[in-house]
Amino acid sequence: MAENMGALTETVYYILLSLFHPMHGYGIMQNVKALSRGRVSMGAGTLYGAISTLVEKGWITPCENAGDDRKKEYIITDTGKAMVMSELERLEELIENGRLMTGGASQ
């Protein structure tokens, strides 16, 4: 299913990685920045646009919170996990082929 979906954007990839544990928007922004060592930084508009799209695709879902709607948390779905795994395979292939063609080490 995930094989023919194309490459994920770096931002989407990091959002999905962040949501292997329930997290609210601000936490996602901070986690993406930390995971990328400060290279990927997104504003609230970008994040919430991406969240909306990912919810529509069924890759993430809002958590059932008992309380504060201002801090809605999200979690990755099984479909989202499949997308991450597909992306990991794609990236590993890119690295393997790059090393093969440039004479670099395979591991």
Can you describe this structure?
With 107 residues, the protein is mainly alpha-helical. The chain has a single domain (10-102), classed as Orthogonal Bundle (Arc Repressor Mutant, subunit A), CATH 1.10.10.10. The chain contains four helices and three strands, in the order H-E-H-H-E-E-H. It has helices spanning 10-18, 25-35, 44-57, 78-102; strands at 23-24, 60-62, 73-76. Helix 1 (10-18) packs across helix 2. The two termini are 28 Å apart. 16% of the residues are buried. The model has no long low-confidence stretch (mean pLDDT 90).
Q: Outline the low-pLDDT stretches.
A: none
> Could you spell the SSE succession in H and E letters?
HEHHEEH
Beta-strand proportion:
5-15%
Largest sheet: 3 strands, antiparallel
CATH homologous superfamily classification: Winged helix-like DNA-binding domain superfamily/Winged helix DNA-binding domain
**Amino- and carboxy-terminal Cα gap:** 28 Å
Q: Average pLDDT across residues?
A: 90
**Rg from alpha-carbon coordinates:** 16 Å
The CATH architecture term is Orthogonal Bundle
| Count of separate structural domains | 1
Do you know the CATH topology?
A: Arc Repressor Mutant, subunit A
Number of helices: 4
Q: Give the oligomeric state of the chains in this entry, treating copies of one chain as homo and distinct chains as hetero.
A: single chain
The helix content is 55-70%
User: Could you say which structural class the secondary elements and strand pairing correspond to?
Assistant: mainly alpha
Query: How would you sum up the global shape?
Result: elongated
Strand neighbour order, sheet with most strands: 1-3-2
Identify the CATH class.
Answer: Mainly Alpha
Record field, number of beta strands: 3
